[in-house]
Amino acid sequence: MFFVIPFKVQEVDDVKEIGHRERAGRTERKREFGRTTDKIVHVDGEGFLQIHGQDDTSIEVSVSPASLQSVADKSNRFLNSSQEVSLTIFAIANWKFGAIMGGVLTSFTALYVVGYSLGFFKLIITGATKKLNRDSGRVP
Fold first, then answer.
1. Is residue 98 in a domain?
2. Are residues 4 and 36 in the same domain?
3. pTM score > 0.85 for this model?
4. CA 120 – CA 25 distance, rounded (Å)
5. Residue 123, Cα to own-chain centre: how many angstroms?
6. Pair (5, 59) in one structural domain
7. How many domains does the chain have?
C-alpha cells in the first residue's frame, strides 16, 4: 500500500553528499510493567542512509544494515555520475518484517486471485451448461 500512498515524504534540494551510519545490534534485559526482568532479548541493529543537501539540510532514510553499504554505494555512484538522470532504489528497513509480511500479503493476494478466477470459470461453465441444455430441448 505504501508504494501507492506514501506515508512520509522527505525532500533535499541540491544533494551534496550521501553517507550512512549504523547502530549496532545488542542484547538487553526485557522490561515488563516498568520493571526489568531476567529475560534477555536481542535488539536488531539499524542502518540509516544520510542524504546531505545545501544549507546543512539533511535527511535519514532507514535501511537494513544488511544492505546499507550496497544502497550507499549505488547512491554515491549515481551522485557522481553525470550521465544518469534518475535513480530508484527499493530498500527494506527491516528484512525480517519485510519477508514475513511480504509472504503473508502475497498469500492473501494469491487466494484472492485464485478465488475470483475459480468463481469466474464456474460462472462460464454453468452458463454454457444451461445454454447447451436449452438448445438440446432439455430443461434442467
1. no
2. yes
3. no
4. 50
5. 36
6. yes
7. 2
Residue type at 27 in one-letter notation: T
Res 2: pLDDT: 54
Amino acid, single-letter form, for residue 99:
A
Q: For residue 133, what is its C-alpha cell?
A: 441444455
Quick one: 8 and 58 in the same domain?
yes
Residue 38 domain flag: yes
CA neighbor of 66 nearest in space, from 97, 37, 35, 36:
97
- Same-domain status, 74 and 42: yes
Please check the confidence at residue 140 and state whether its pLDDT lies above 80.
no
- Residues 131 and 76 occupy one common structural domain: no
- CA–CA distance, 63 with 127 (Å, rounded to integer): 53
The domain in which residue 126 lies consists of 103-140
All cell numbers assigned to 4: 501507492
Q: What is the pLDDT of residues 87-100, one digit of tens each?
A: 888 887 777 776 77
Question: Are residues 124 and 89 both part of a single domain?
Answer: no
Amino acid at 62: S
Give pLDDT tens digits for 111-137. Answer: 889 999 999 999 999 998 888 888 776
Convert the pLDDT of each residue in 39-63 to its tens digit.
888 877 788 989 998 888 888 888 8
